[in-house]
Amino acid sequence: MAQTEYGSDPQPSPEREGLRVARIGKPHGVRGEVTVELFTDEPEARLGPGAVLERRPGKGTEDRTTQQLTVSSQRWNKKICMLSFEDVRDRDAAEALRGSTLHIEIPDEDEQEGWYSHELEGMVCQSPDGHPYGVVVELVTGPAQDLLAVRTEAGDEVLIPFVEEIVPDISADERIITLTPPEGLI
What we know:
Layout: E1 3-5, H1 14-17, E2 19-28, E3 33-38, H2 43-46, E4 52-56, E5 65-77, E6 80-85, H3 91-97, E7 101-104, H4 117-120, E8 124-126, E9 132-140, E10 147-152, E11 157-161, E12 169-171, E13 176-178
Parallel strand pairs: 8-13
Antiparallel strand pairs: 1-5, 2-3, 2-7, 3-6, 4-5, 4-7, 5-6, 8-9, 9-10, 10-11, 12-13
């Protein structure tokens, strides 16, 4: 298991972050298997046996190191994805990974058909006439639709459906997202 110092920067740069594909949950059994919360629509391809992932510590942990993990097996228990890693062989080692996020290298941008959370984080949300609503904290992926988590100027966090009717334009160069929310949403 290769480990590197993550650094003191609480938010890694997008180039370094990679694509977040899962968060490690609780251990399952005594042989190092863990449950994972998925953030990808392609878990079989991105988290299948042989996949090399970068583990990042969870928010609020003192551990600032990253490590490379290689998936040795993936299986499903009802709708829960469970993974085993080559160098994680017991429950204690699996418990130490709990709350960590798993990242893969960002795919080639030319093949992209959507947005990744790290690309939207920090973008300013505003109305078509320039009235500011807040800043994107993260893209929350869901089974039915994705949501933009936006921190308003008042400090509240609001979830905005990430659909074309409400998010008609995104300017990556200007880092501005135009919103047309229905009355009362923000």
